[in-house]
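Hi support team,

I submitted a single chain yesterday and got back a structure, but I'm not sure I'm reading the C-alpha coordinate output correctly. Could someone confirm the output below corresponds to the sequence I sent? I've pasted both exactly as they appear in my results page.

Thanks,
R.
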Amino acid sequence: MKNLILKSLIGLILTELAVAAENTTLDEVVVTATRTAQSQQTLIADSTVIDSEEIKRAGQSTLLEVLQRQPGIEVTQNGGAGKTSGIFMRGTNTSHVVILIDGVRMQSATAGTTTLENIPVQHIDRIEIVRGPASSLYGQDAIGGVIQIFTKKGIQGFKPYANLGLGTYDTSLAEAGLRGKQNDTTYALNVSANKTNGFSALDTANPNLNDKDGYRNLAVSGSLSHLITEGHEIGLTLLHSKGRTRFDNRFNLTGTFNPAFSSHADIENHTYSLFSKNQILDQWHSTLRIGQGFDESITYDADAIGQTRSLFRTKQDQLNWQNDIALPIGVLTLMYDRLEDKVDSSTEFKSTRRTNEAYVVSYVANIQAHTFQASAREDHNSSFGNNVTGGLGYGYQINNAWRITGSYGSAFKAPSFNDLYFPDSFGFVTSNPNLRPEKSDNLEASVRYRDDTSSASVTAYENRIRDLIILDSNFIPANLNKATIRGLTLAASHRWDNLDLSGSVDIQSPRDDATNNLLVRRANRHGQLNLGYTLQDWRFGAEMVTSSERYNDAANTLRMGGYTIFNMTAQYKIHRDWLLQARANNIFDKDYRLALDGNPATTGFAYNTPGANLFVNIRYEPQ
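Hi R., thanks for writing in. Yes, this is the structure output for that exact sequence:
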Protein backbone atom coordinates (compact mmCIF):
# COMPACT_ATOMS: atom_id res chain seq x y z
CA MET A 1 0.00 0.00 0.00
CA LYS A 2 2.76 2.46 0.98
CA ASN A 3 4.75 1.65 -2.17
CA LEU A 4 1.63 2.17 -4.28
CA ILE A 5 1.01 5.56 -2.66
CA LEU A 6 4.61 6.63 -3.15
CA LYS A 7 4.54 5.54 -6.81
CA SER A 8 1.31 7.50 -7.29
CA LEU A 9 2.95 10.58 -5.79
CA ILE A 10 5.94 10.21 -8.11
CA GLY A 11 3.59 9.83 -11.07
CA LEU A 12 1.72 12.99 -10.10
CA ILE A 13 4.94 15.00 -9.85
CA LEU A 14 6.39 13.73 -13.13
CA THR A 15 3.08 14.48 -14.83
CA GLU A 16 3.23 18.05 -13.56
CA LEU A 17 6.72 18.38 -15.02
CA ALA A 18 5.52 17.11 -18.39
CA VAL A 19 2.26 19.04 -18.85
CA ALA A 20 2.95 22.42 -17.21
CA ALA A 21 2.17 25.21 -19.65
CA GLU A 22 4.26 28.35 -20.14
CA ASN A 23 2.88 31.36 -18.26
CA THR A 24 4.16 34.38 -16.35
CA THR A 25 6.55 33.42 -13.55
CA LEU A 26 5.95 34.02 -9.85
CA ASP A 27 8.30 36.32 -7.96
CA GLU A 28 8.28 35.68 -4.19
CA VAL A 29 11.12 37.20 -2.16
CA VAL A 30 13.26 34.93 0.06
CA VAL A 31 15.90 36.15 2.54
CA THR A 32 17.32 33.04 4.21
CA ALA A 33 18.90 31.36 1.16
CA THR A 34 21.52 34.09 0.58
CA ARG A 35 21.01 36.39 3.63
CA THR A 36 19.86 39.04 1.14
CA ALA A 37 16.47 39.55 -0.49
CA GLN A 38 16.24 37.40 -3.64
CA SER A 39 13.29 36.42 -5.77
CA GLN A 40 12.51 32.73 -5.41
CA GLN A 41 12.70 32.41 -9.18
CA THR A 42 16.44 33.26 -9.16
CA LEU A 43 17.45 31.13 -6.14
CA ILE A 44 20.02 28.40 -6.51
CA ALA A 45 19.34 26.79 -3.14
CA ASP A 46 16.53 24.25 -2.77
CA SER A 47 14.03 26.23 -0.69
CA THR A 48 10.41 26.34 0.45
CA VAL A 49 8.32 29.21 1.79
CA ILE A 50 5.36 28.57 4.12
CA ASP A 51 3.30 31.75 4.20
CA SER A 52 0.75 33.00 6.74
CA GLU A 53 -2.24 31.76 4.73
CA GLU A 54 -0.91 28.19 4.62
CA ILE A 55 -0.24 28.25 8.36
CA LYS A 56 -3.70 29.65 9.06
CA ARG A 57 -5.46 27.09 6.83
CA ALA A 58 -3.69 24.27 8.66
CA GLY A 59 -5.85 24.94 11.72
CA GLN A 60 -4.56 23.65 15.05
CA SER A 61 -1.24 22.17 13.99
CA THR A 62 2.02 22.11 15.87
CA LEU A 63 5.20 23.45 14.30
CA LEU A 64 6.39 19.86 13.94
CA GLU A 65 3.26 18.92 11.97
CA VAL A 66 3.64 21.93 9.69
CA LEU A 67 7.26 21.01 8.95
CA GLN A 68 6.38 17.33 8.42
CA ARG A 69 4.28 18.33 5.41
CA GLN A 70 7.29 19.85 3.60
CA PRO A 71 9.70 18.22 1.11
CA GLY A 72 12.89 16.74 2.52
CA ILE A 73 11.74 16.62 6.16
CA GLU A 74 11.06 13.67 8.45
CA VAL A 75 10.11 14.03 12.12
CA THR A 76 10.59 12.17 15.38
CA GLN A 77 8.76 12.69 18.68
CA ASN A 78 8.74 10.92 22.04
CA GLY A 79 4.98 10.96 22.52
CA GLY A 80 2.40 13.69 22.00
CA ALA A 81 2.37 17.49 22.23
CA GLY A 82 5.25 19.03 24.14
CA LYS A 83 7.42 15.91 24.13
CA THR A 84 11.02 15.82 22.90
CA SER A 85 11.02 16.09 19.13
CA GLY A 86 13.32 16.65 16.17
CA ILE A 87 13.52 16.83 12.41
CA PHE A 88 15.72 15.04 9.90
CA MET A 89 16.37 17.24 6.87
CA ARG A 90 17.57 15.30 3.83
CA GLY A 91 18.48 12.40 6.10
CA THR A 92 20.91 14.33 8.33
CA ASN A 93 20.80 14.33 12.13
CA THR A 94 18.36 16.36 14.20
CA SER A 95 21.32 18.50 15.33
CA HIS A 96 22.33 19.25 11.73
CA VAL A 97 19.75 22.00 11.16
CA VAL A 98 20.09 25.64 12.25
CA ILE A 99 16.84 27.11 13.60
CA LEU A 100 16.52 30.89 13.53
CA ILE A 101 13.71 33.01 14.95
CA ASP A 102 13.72 36.48 13.41
CA GLY A 103 17.43 36.06 12.66
CA VAL A 104 18.39 34.78 16.13
CA ARG A 105 19.53 31.23 16.96
CA MET A 106 17.62 29.32 19.62
CA GLN A 107 19.32 26.09 20.65
CA SER A 108 20.32 23.95 23.60
CA ALA A 109 24.13 23.96 23.72
CA THR A 110 24.06 20.85 25.92
CA ALA A 111 21.80 18.70 23.73
CA GLY A 112 22.79 20.40 20.47
CA THR A 113 19.18 20.66 19.24
CA THR A 114 16.29 23.14 19.29
CA THR A 115 13.16 22.65 21.41
CA LEU A 116 10.77 22.70 18.46
CA GLU A 117 7.93 21.29 20.57
CA ASN A 118 7.85 24.49 22.65
CA ILE A 119 7.59 26.97 19.75
CA PRO A 120 3.85 27.72 19.31
CA VAL A 121 2.78 27.93 15.69
CA GLN A 122 0.22 30.64 16.58
CA HIS A 123 3.01 33.24 16.66
CA ILE A 124 4.48 32.38 13.26
CA ASP A 125 3.80 34.52 10.23
CA ARG A 126 6.18 32.87 7.77
CA ILE A 127 8.73 30.05 7.57
CA GLU A 128 11.62 29.83 5.09
CA ILE A 129 13.28 26.43 4.65
CA VAL A 130 16.64 26.06 2.91
CA ARG A 131 17.73 22.48 2.29
CA GLY A 132 21.41 21.62 1.93
CA PRO A 133 24.61 22.81 3.64
CA ALA A 134 24.68 26.46 4.67
CA SER A 135 27.62 26.74 7.08
CA SER A 136 29.37 29.21 4.77
CA LEU A 137 26.54 31.65 5.58
CA TYR A 138 25.27 30.51 9.01
CA GLY A 139 28.22 28.71 10.60
CA GLN A 140 28.20 25.60 12.76
CA ASP A 141 25.47 22.95 12.60
CA ALA A 142 24.07 23.78 9.12
CA ILE A 143 24.92 20.40 7.53
CA GLY A 144 21.31 19.60 6.64
CA GLY A 145 19.98 23.10 6.17
CA VAL A 146 18.44 26.17 7.80
CA ILE A 147 14.90 26.94 8.94
CA GLN A 148 14.08 30.57 9.69
CA ILE A 149 10.86 31.42 11.52
CA PHE A 150 9.44 34.92 11.23
CA THR A 151 7.00 35.94 13.96
CA LYS A 152 4.00 38.18 13.32
CA LYS A 153 5.02 41.81 12.73
CA GLY A 154 3.25 45.12 12.36
CA ILE A 155 1.23 45.84 9.22
CA GLN A 156 -0.55 48.85 7.73
CA GLY A 157 -3.53 50.10 9.74
CA PHE A 158 -4.81 48.61 13.00
CA LYS A 159 -5.54 44.86 12.89
CA PRO A 160 -6.64 43.04 16.07
CA TYR A 161 -7.42 39.32 15.99
CA ALA A 162 -8.56 36.54 18.32
CA ASN A 163 -8.95 32.77 18.12
CA LEU A 164 -10.58 30.16 20.40
CA GLY A 165 -10.56 26.39 19.94
CA LEU A 166 -11.35 23.02 21.54
CA GLY A 167 -10.42 19.50 20.60
CA THR A 168 -9.79 15.85 21.46
CA TYR A 169 -7.57 14.96 24.45
CA ASP A 170 -9.16 17.92 26.31
CA THR A 171 -7.22 20.30 24.11
CA SER A 172 -7.91 24.02 24.28
CA LEU A 173 -6.43 27.10 22.63
CA ALA A 174 -6.84 30.83 23.14
CA GLU A 175 -4.87 33.45 21.27
CA ALA A 176 -5.18 37.16 20.63
CA GLY A 177 -3.11 39.96 19.28
CA LEU A 178 -2.92 43.21 17.43
CA ARG A 179 -0.77 44.44 14.57
CA GLY A 180 -0.55 47.93 13.24
CA LYS A 181 1.31 50.96 11.98
CA GLN A 182 1.13 54.55 13.19
CA ASN A 183 3.00 57.03 11.00
CA ASP A 184 6.58 55.67 10.83
CA THR A 185 6.18 53.19 13.70
CA THR A 186 5.02 49.59 13.27
CA TYR A 187 4.10 47.32 16.17
CA ALA A 188 2.73 43.89 17.01
CA LEU A 189 1.80 42.03 20.20
CA ASN A 190 0.63 38.40 20.23
CA VAL A 191 -0.37 36.15 23.16
CA SER A 192 -1.37 32.47 23.14
CA ALA A 193 -2.29 29.79 25.67
CA ASN A 194 -2.39 26.08 24.75
CA LYS A 195 -3.38 23.14 26.95
CA THR A 196 -3.93 19.44 26.39
CA ASN A 197 -4.32 16.51 28.77
CA GLY A 198 -2.76 14.35 26.07
CA PHE A 199 -2.23 10.61 26.27
CA SER A 200 0.38 8.24 27.69
CA ALA A 201 3.77 9.00 26.14
CA LEU A 202 4.84 5.34 26.40
CA ASP A 203 2.78 2.42 25.11
CA THR A 204 3.09 -0.01 28.01
CA ALA A 205 0.54 -2.47 26.52
CA ASN A 206 -1.08 -2.40 29.98
CA PRO A 207 -4.06 -0.05 30.31
CA ASN A 208 -3.57 0.07 34.08
CA LEU A 209 -0.12 1.63 33.63
CA ASN A 210 -1.06 4.15 30.95
CA ASP A 211 -1.53 7.71 32.19
CA LYS A 212 -2.18 11.07 30.57
CA ASP A 213 0.99 12.98 29.80
CA GLY A 214 -0.30 16.47 29.20
CA TYR A 215 1.28 19.72 28.06
CA ARG A 216 0.50 23.38 28.52
CA ASN A 217 2.11 26.48 27.06
CA LEU A 218 1.87 30.23 27.50
CA ALA A 219 3.67 32.39 24.94
CA VAL A 220 4.03 36.03 23.98
CA SER A 221 5.72 37.64 20.99
CA GLY A 222 6.07 41.21 19.88
CA SER A 223 7.90 43.63 17.67
CA LEU A 224 8.42 47.36 17.47
CA SER A 225 10.22 49.30 14.75
CA HIS A 226 10.58 52.94 13.83
CA LEU A 227 11.71 54.55 10.58
CA ILE A 228 13.89 57.41 11.77
CA THR A 229 14.33 58.76 8.28
CA GLU A 230 14.36 57.26 4.82
CA GLY A 231 16.80 54.32 4.83
CA HIS A 232 17.35 54.26 8.61
CA GLU A 233 15.26 51.98 10.84
CA ILE A 234 15.64 50.69 14.39
CA GLY A 235 13.59 48.04 16.13
CA LEU A 236 13.25 45.05 18.39
CA THR A 237 11.69 41.57 18.27
CA LEU A 238 10.75 39.17 21.06
CA LEU A 239 9.40 35.65 21.46
CA HIS A 240 8.95 34.10 24.90
CA SER A 241 7.47 30.64 25.38
CA LYS A 242 7.00 28.74 28.64
CA GLY A 243 5.61 25.24 28.86
CA ARG A 244 5.14 22.29 31.21
CA THR A 245 5.12 18.75 29.91
CA ARG A 246 4.59 15.38 31.59
CA PHE A 247 6.34 12.25 30.34
CA ASP A 248 7.08 8.64 31.30
CA ASN A 249 10.26 7.01 32.54
CA ARG A 250 10.92 3.28 32.45
CA PHE A 251 12.90 3.35 35.71
CA ASN A 252 12.32 5.14 39.00
CA LEU A 253 14.93 6.97 41.11
CA THR A 254 16.41 3.73 42.49
CA GLY A 255 16.87 2.31 38.98
CA THR A 256 13.99 -0.14 39.43
CA PHE A 257 11.96 -0.97 36.35
CA ASN A 258 8.66 0.89 36.65
CA PRO A 259 6.94 1.92 33.41
CA ALA A 260 4.32 3.89 35.39
CA PHE A 261 6.98 6.24 36.79
CA SER A 262 6.00 9.71 35.55
CA SER A 263 8.01 12.92 35.47
CA HIS A 264 7.42 16.46 34.37
CA ALA A 265 9.58 19.25 32.99
CA ASP A 266 9.27 23.02 32.84
CA ILE A 267 10.51 24.28 29.48
CA GLU A 268 11.31 27.90 28.74
CA ASN A 269 12.56 29.42 25.50
CA HIS A 270 13.00 32.94 24.30
CA THR A 271 14.70 35.00 21.64
CA TYR A 272 15.04 38.73 21.49
CA SER A 273 16.95 41.08 19.26
CA LEU A 274 17.66 44.77 18.80
CA PHE A 275 18.46 45.85 15.25
CA SER A 276 19.48 48.87 13.25
CA LYS A 277 19.12 48.95 9.46
CA ASN A 278 20.97 51.78 7.76
CA GLN A 279 21.42 52.85 4.15
CA ILE A 280 24.85 54.38 4.75
CA LEU A 281 25.50 55.08 1.07
CA ASP A 282 23.46 54.51 -2.05
CA GLN A 283 25.43 51.29 -2.61
CA TRP A 284 26.00 50.29 1.04
CA HIS A 285 23.31 48.89 3.34
CA SER A 286 24.21 47.89 6.90
CA THR A 287 22.26 45.73 9.35
CA LEU A 288 23.46 45.43 12.95
CA ARG A 289 21.65 42.92 15.18
CA ILE A 290 22.27 42.12 18.85
CA GLY A 291 20.27 39.30 20.38
CA GLN A 292 20.01 36.31 22.67
CA GLY A 293 18.62 32.82 22.37
CA PHE A 294 17.59 31.12 25.62
CA ASP A 295 16.75 27.46 26.28
CA GLU A 296 15.94 26.05 29.72
CA SER A 297 14.65 22.70 30.90
CA ILE A 298 14.04 21.80 34.55
CA THR A 299 13.03 18.16 35.04
CA TYR A 300 11.37 16.91 38.23
CA ASP A 301 11.43 13.21 39.09
CA ALA A 302 9.62 12.05 42.22
CA ASP A 303 8.70 8.75 43.86
CA ALA A 304 8.31 7.36 47.39
CA ILE A 305 11.97 7.95 48.28
CA GLY A 306 12.13 11.61 47.27
CA GLN A 307 12.43 14.06 44.43
CA THR A 308 15.23 15.17 42.11
CA ARG A 309 15.55 18.37 40.10
CA SER A 310 17.70 18.58 36.97
CA LEU A 311 18.46 21.94 35.36
CA PHE A 312 19.93 22.55 31.92
CA ARG A 313 20.06 26.18 30.77
CA THR A 314 21.66 27.68 27.66
CA LYS A 315 22.16 31.35 26.84
CA GLN A 316 23.41 32.22 23.37
CA ASP A 317 24.50 35.85 23.13
CA GLN A 318 24.73 36.91 19.50
CA LEU A 319 26.02 39.83 17.47
CA ASN A 320 25.77 40.09 13.70
CA TRP A 321 26.91 42.95 11.49
CA GLN A 322 26.03 42.48 7.84
CA ASN A 323 27.06 44.87 5.09
CA ASP A 324 25.53 44.53 1.63
CA ILE A 325 27.39 46.45 -1.07
CA ALA A 326 25.77 46.88 -4.48
CA LEU A 327 28.41 46.51 -7.19
CA PRO A 328 27.99 47.36 -10.88
CA ILE A 329 27.21 43.65 -11.26
CA GLY A 330 25.83 41.77 -8.26
CA VAL A 331 25.86 42.27 -4.49
CA LEU A 332 28.85 41.72 -2.23
CA THR A 333 28.14 40.86 1.43
CA LEU A 334 30.73 41.28 4.19
CA MET A 335 29.73 40.06 7.63
CA TYR A 336 30.99 39.65 11.17
CA ASP A 337 29.19 37.04 13.29
CA ARG A 338 29.75 36.34 17.00
CA LEU A 339 28.12 33.64 19.13
CA GLU A 340 28.78 33.03 22.84
CA ASP A 341 27.37 29.90 24.47
CA LYS A 342 26.86 29.90 28.25
CA VAL A 343 25.68 26.81 30.11
CA ASP A 344 24.22 26.69 33.61
CA SER A 345 23.29 23.28 34.96
CA SER A 346 22.70 21.27 38.12
CA THR A 347 25.18 18.88 36.48
CA GLU A 348 28.74 20.16 36.77
CA PHE A 349 30.20 20.38 33.28
CA LYS A 350 33.97 20.57 32.82
CA SER A 351 33.46 23.73 30.78
CA THR A 352 30.42 26.02 30.67
CA ARG A 353 31.31 28.65 28.10
CA ARG A 354 32.66 28.96 24.58
CA THR A 355 32.77 31.66 21.94
CA ASN A 356 32.71 31.60 18.16
CA GLU A 357 33.75 34.49 15.95
CA ALA A 358 33.29 34.34 12.19
CA TYR A 359 34.03 36.41 9.10
CA VAL A 360 31.94 35.94 5.97
CA VAL A 361 32.20 37.10 2.39
CA SER A 362 29.42 36.33 -0.06
CA TYR A 363 28.64 37.36 -3.64
CA VAL A 364 25.41 36.98 -5.61
CA ALA A 365 24.88 38.15 -9.19
CA ASN A 366 22.08 37.84 -11.72
CA ILE A 367 23.39 38.45 -15.23
CA GLN A 368 20.63 38.03 -17.79
CA ALA A 369 19.73 34.30 -17.66
CA HIS A 370 22.68 33.42 -15.37
CA THR A 371 22.86 33.44 -11.57
CA PHE A 372 26.14 33.09 -9.67
CA GLN A 373 26.60 32.61 -5.95
CA ALA A 374 29.80 32.20 -3.95
CA SER A 375 30.40 32.35 -0.20
CA ALA A 376 33.23 31.66 2.23
CA ARG A 377 33.32 31.73 6.01
CA GLU A 378 36.03 31.26 8.63
CA ASP A 379 34.94 30.37 12.18
CA HIS A 380 37.26 30.78 15.16
CA ASN A 381 35.97 28.72 18.09
CA SER A 382 37.43 28.70 21.59
CA SER A 383 36.78 24.96 21.99
CA PHE A 384 37.51 23.36 18.61
CA GLY A 385 39.71 25.82 16.71
CA ASN A 386 39.23 27.15 13.19
CA ASN A 387 36.91 25.89 10.48
CA VAL A 388 36.64 27.19 6.92
CA THR A 389 33.55 26.48 4.84
CA GLY A 390 32.48 27.57 1.40
CA GLY A 391 29.82 27.33 -1.24
CA LEU A 392 29.54 27.75 -5.02
CA GLY A 393 26.37 27.77 -7.07
CA TYR A 394 25.18 28.42 -10.60
CA GLY A 395 21.71 28.73 -12.08
CA TYR A 396 20.54 29.15 -15.67
CA GLN A 397 17.09 30.39 -16.68
CA ILE A 398 16.28 28.45 -19.85
CA ASN A 399 13.10 30.44 -20.47
CA ASN A 400 10.40 32.16 -18.41
CA ALA A 401 9.45 28.92 -16.69
CA TRP A 402 12.32 26.41 -16.80
CA ARG A 403 15.51 26.66 -14.75
CA ILE A 404 18.50 24.44 -13.95
CA THR A 405 20.89 24.80 -11.01
CA GLY A 406 23.99 23.16 -9.58
CA SER A 407 25.92 23.78 -6.39
CA TYR A 408 28.63 22.61 -3.99
CA GLY A 409 28.74 23.39 -0.28
CA SER A 410 30.77 22.39 2.75
CA ALA A 411 29.53 22.47 6.34
CA PHE A 412 30.43 21.47 9.88
CA LYS A 413 28.76 20.58 13.18
CA ALA A 414 30.26 21.67 16.49
CA PRO A 415 30.23 18.96 19.19
CA SER A 416 27.68 19.69 21.92
CA PHE A 417 28.58 20.39 25.54
CA ASN A 418 27.19 16.96 26.44
CA ASP A 419 29.56 15.31 23.96
CA LEU A 420 32.57 17.32 25.10
CA TYR A 421 32.16 17.97 28.81
CA PHE A 422 29.42 15.89 30.45
CA PRO A 423 30.82 14.63 33.78
CA ASP A 424 31.60 10.98 34.38
CA SER A 425 28.71 9.02 35.89
CA PHE A 426 28.96 6.02 38.27
CA GLY A 427 32.63 5.63 37.36
CA PHE A 428 32.01 5.59 33.59
CA VAL A 429 33.44 8.11 31.12
CA THR A 430 30.57 9.79 29.26
CA SER A 431 32.24 12.57 27.23
CA ASN A 432 35.28 13.27 25.08
CA PRO A 433 36.93 16.74 25.15
CA ASN A 434 39.08 15.79 22.14
CA LEU A 435 36.19 15.48 19.70
CA ARG A 436 36.54 17.14 16.32
CA PRO A 437 33.65 18.86 14.52
CA GLU A 438 31.67 16.77 12.06
CA LYS A 439 32.29 17.94 8.49
CA SER A 440 30.43 17.46 5.24
CA ASP A 441 30.66 18.07 1.50
CA ASN A 442 27.51 18.26 -0.58
CA LEU A 443 26.89 18.27 -4.34
CA GLU A 444 23.46 18.82 -5.85
CA ALA A 445 21.68 19.65 -9.08
CA SER A 446 18.09 20.49 -9.90
CA VAL A 447 15.62 21.09 -12.71
CA ARG A 448 12.72 23.42 -11.86
CA TYR A 449 9.52 24.66 -13.47
CA ARG A 450 7.41 27.55 -12.21
CA ASP A 451 4.57 29.61 -13.67
CA ASP A 452 1.37 31.29 -12.48
CA THR A 453 -0.45 28.03 -11.73
CA SER A 454 2.19 25.29 -11.56
CA SER A 455 5.53 24.44 -10.05
CA ALA A 456 7.64 21.31 -10.24
CA SER A 457 11.20 20.36 -9.37
CA VAL A 458 13.60 17.43 -9.31
CA THR A 459 16.64 17.80 -7.03
CA ALA A 460 19.43 15.23 -6.73
CA TYR A 461 22.10 15.45 -4.04
CA GLU A 462 24.96 13.60 -2.37
CA ASN A 463 26.13 14.62 1.10
CA ARG A 464 29.25 12.99 2.55
CA ILE A 465 29.71 13.46 6.30
CA ARG A 466 33.01 12.58 7.97
CA ASP A 467 34.08 12.48 11.62
CA LEU A 468 30.50 11.59 12.45
CA ILE A 469 30.10 11.57 16.23
CA ILE A 470 28.70 8.29 17.57
CA LEU A 471 29.01 6.29 20.78
CA ASP A 472 31.88 3.79 20.55
CA SER A 473 31.89 0.29 22.06
CA ASN A 474 32.42 1.82 25.52
CA PHE A 475 29.53 4.28 25.00
CA ILE A 476 31.94 7.24 24.76
CA PRO A 477 31.39 9.87 22.05
CA ALA A 478 34.01 9.48 19.33
CA ASN A 479 34.72 10.59 15.76
CA LEU A 480 34.50 7.11 14.29
CA ASN A 481 32.09 6.93 11.42
CA LYS A 482 31.41 8.39 8.01
CA ALA A 483 27.99 8.65 6.45
CA THR A 484 26.87 9.14 2.88
CA ILE A 485 23.41 10.45 2.08
CA ARG A 486 22.24 10.24 -1.51
CA GLY A 487 18.80 11.43 -2.40
CA LEU A 488 16.26 12.61 -4.92
CA THR A 489 13.48 15.07 -4.05
CA LEU A 490 10.53 15.46 -6.40
CA ALA A 491 7.98 18.18 -5.69
CA ALA A 492 5.08 19.64 -7.66
CA SER A 493 1.97 21.76 -7.31
CA HIS A 494 -0.85 22.88 -9.59
CA ARG A 495 -3.80 25.21 -9.14
CA TRP A 496 -7.04 25.07 -11.11
CA ASP A 497 -9.90 27.56 -10.60
CA ASN A 498 -11.12 26.21 -7.25
CA LEU A 499 -8.79 23.25 -6.75
CA ASP A 500 -5.13 23.13 -5.72
CA LEU A 501 -2.91 20.06 -5.47
CA SER A 502 0.65 19.71 -4.21
CA GLY A 503 2.93 16.86 -3.24
CA SER A 504 6.49 15.70 -2.81
CA VAL A 505 8.44 12.46 -2.65
CA ASP A 506 11.89 11.91 -1.15
CA ILE A 507 13.84 8.85 -2.25
CA GLN A 508 17.01 8.70 -0.19
CA SER A 509 19.75 6.47 1.12
CA PRO A 510 21.04 7.85 4.45
CA ARG A 511 23.61 5.23 5.41
CA ASP A 512 26.53 4.63 7.74
CA ASP A 513 29.54 3.92 5.48
CA ALA A 514 31.05 1.40 7.90
CA THR A 515 27.97 -0.85 8.19
CA ASN A 516 25.79 0.21 5.24
CA ASN A 517 22.92 0.43 7.74
CA LEU A 518 20.27 3.12 7.59
CA LEU A 519 20.87 6.02 9.95
CA VAL A 520 18.65 5.90 13.03
CA ARG A 521 14.93 6.74 12.50
CA ARG A 522 15.38 7.65 8.82
CA ALA A 523 13.47 6.10 5.94
CA ASN A 524 14.43 5.27 2.37
CA ARG A 525 11.22 6.85 1.11
CA HIS A 526 8.78 9.40 2.46
CA GLY A 527 6.29 11.80 0.91
CA GLN A 528 3.23 13.97 1.36
CA LEU A 529 0.22 15.09 -0.64
CA ASN A 530 -2.10 18.07 -0.09
CA LEU A 531 -5.43 18.76 -1.78
CA GLY A 532 -7.57 21.87 -1.34
CA TYR A 533 -10.96 22.85 -2.76
CA THR A 534 -12.73 26.21 -2.43
CA LEU A 535 -16.49 26.58 -2.90
CA GLN A 536 -17.78 30.09 -2.24
CA ASP A 537 -17.39 30.62 1.54
CA TRP A 538 -16.20 27.05 2.13
CA ARG A 539 -12.74 25.53 1.83
CA PHE A 540 -11.98 21.82 2.22
CA GLY A 541 -8.59 20.18 2.49
CA ALA A 542 -7.12 16.70 2.58
CA GLU A 543 -3.57 15.74 3.54
CA MET A 544 -1.56 12.56 3.40
CA VAL A 545 1.84 11.84 4.99
CA THR A 546 3.58 8.55 4.26
CA SER A 547 6.90 6.89 5.09
CA SER A 548 8.63 3.56 4.60
CA GLU A 549 10.14 1.58 7.48
CA ARG A 550 12.82 2.99 9.79
CA TYR A 551 15.06 1.60 12.55
CA ASN A 552 15.47 2.93 16.07
CA ASP A 553 19.06 1.71 16.45
CA ALA A 554 22.32 1.91 14.51
CA ALA A 555 22.43 -1.90 14.14
CA ASN A 556 19.04 -1.82 12.33
CA THR A 557 17.52 -4.47 14.59
CA LEU A 558 14.69 -2.39 16.14
CA ARG A 559 12.33 -1.92 13.22
CA MET A 560 9.56 0.67 13.06
CA GLY A 561 7.08 -0.14 10.32
CA GLY A 562 6.13 2.24 7.55
CA TYR A 563 2.96 4.29 7.91
CA THR A 564 0.47 6.44 6.04
CA ILE A 565 -1.78 8.91 7.84
CA PHE A 566 -4.62 11.01 6.45
CA ASN A 567 -5.84 14.38 7.75
CA MET A 568 -8.75 16.59 6.70
CA THR A 569 -9.54 20.29 7.17
CA ALA A 570 -12.60 22.46 6.60
CA GLN A 571 -13.31 26.13 7.06
CA TYR A 572 -16.36 28.31 6.61
CA LYS A 573 -16.39 32.09 6.40
CA ILE A 574 -19.33 32.97 8.64
CA HIS A 575 -18.87 36.65 8.02
CA ARG A 576 -16.22 38.80 6.40
CA ASP A 577 -14.35 38.96 9.74
CA TRP A 578 -15.29 35.56 11.24
CA LEU A 579 -13.93 32.14 10.25
CA LEU A 580 -14.96 28.71 11.58
CA GLN A 581 -12.35 25.96 11.16
CA ALA A 582 -12.14 22.22 11.84
CA ARG A 583 -9.18 19.87 11.57
CA ALA A 584 -9.32 16.06 11.79
CA ASN A 585 -5.98 14.30 12.16
CA ASN A 586 -5.21 10.63 11.52
CA ILE A 587 -8.81 10.06 10.48
CA PHE A 588 -8.32 6.29 10.03
CA ASP A 589 -6.77 5.99 13.51
CA LYS A 590 -3.48 4.55 12.23
CA ASP A 591 -1.28 3.04 14.95
CA TYR A 592 2.29 3.99 14.03
CA ARG A 593 5.62 4.80 15.66
CA LEU A 594 8.08 7.68 15.35
CA ALA A 595 10.41 6.55 18.17
CA LEU A 596 11.11 3.70 20.58
CA ASP A 597 12.48 3.81 24.12
CA GLY A 598 14.80 0.82 24.31
CA ASN A 599 13.86 -2.60 22.96
CA PRO A 600 10.10 -3.38 23.27
CA ALA A 601 10.95 -7.08 23.22
CA THR A 602 12.68 -6.75 26.61
CA THR A 603 12.12 -3.81 28.97
CA GLY A 604 11.62 -1.11 26.35
CA PHE A 605 8.47 0.46 24.98
CA ALA A 606 7.28 2.34 21.94
CA TYR A 607 6.35 5.99 22.15
CA ASN A 608 2.68 6.58 21.37
CA THR A 609 1.47 8.83 18.56
CA PRO A 610 -1.90 10.61 18.37
CA GLY A 611 -4.89 8.55 17.28
CA ALA A 612 -7.88 9.97 15.43
CA ASN A 613 -8.53 13.44 16.82
CA LEU A 614 -10.52 16.57 16.04
CA PHE A 615 -9.97 20.26 16.71
CA VAL A 616 -12.50 23.06 16.06
CA ASN A 617 -11.83 26.77 16.37
CA ILE A 618 -13.40 30.12 15.57
CA ARG A 619 -11.25 33.05 14.45
CA TYR A 620 -12.00 36.77 14.45
CA GLU A 621 -9.79 38.87 12.19
CA PRO A 622 -11.10 42.14 10.70
CA GLN A 623 -10.40 42.44 6.98
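A quick pointer for reading it: The radius of gyration is 24 Å. Let us know if anything else looks off.

Best,
Support desk
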